[in-house]
Amino acid sequence: MLKGYKTLLSYGKDEIIIEKSKFIGHATPVENEGEAVAFIEKIKTEYWNATHNVPAYIVGKNNEIQRYSDDKEPSGTAGVPVLEVIKREGLKNVAVVVTRYFGGTKLGTGGLVRAYTRGAKIALGAAKIITKKLHKLVTITMDYTVSGKVQNEILQNGYLIKEAKYDDAVHFYVYVEVDLFKHFKNQITEWTSGKYNLNHIKEEYLSEIDGKIAI
Predict the structure, then answer these.
(1) Bridge partners, residue 113, by sequence
(2) How far is CA 83 from the centre of its chain?
(3) Residue 23 and residue 116 in contact, taking contact as beta carbons nearer than 8 Å
(4) Domains, in order of start, for the chain
(5) SS3 at position 40
(6) What global pTM score does this model have?
């Protein structure tokens, strides 16, 4: 699995007017090609009276699937620029549609490329670019006598506690970035003087927004 990749937080939409044509950029995160196609069809249905609905998407952790369409704009002036914006941002699992309502003024080849590029950029800005980082979710079990200190150290060192459970011992459920896991184990050993049990639960991607991980 990838240790991290960039994608979008949620659906976003924004619009601009260029030479009397309205360009509406739509962008969303997707998990697979089916979701990308469904999103594109939804936009086309909603904006059925638009002059063009230009789609592009990249799917797969290694960008295995890349698709675009000019939707009857001159070849190479619409779909490719939208796809290139996604690629330049280094995004994965993202679909974008730029809707155009023609305003009566032709933009020319270069103008179309610039317009669809801007339409894609404002869509990504509205959807908010985030980083997904792979984390391990683990449980750490320890005595009550050290739990206060350990909880404080975990938080002070920037790890995330998902929840805590208390019975005959204390159980912290902690998210640890995969690259930091070995260091984390060494720290836990130090904080508890080796008196703890650690169990792996699963690995999952968490979203990093503005430099902070959000659960």
Answers:
(1) none
(2) 16
(3) yes
(4) 4-127 (3.30.230.30), 131-214 (3.30.70.240)
(5) helix
(6) 0.84
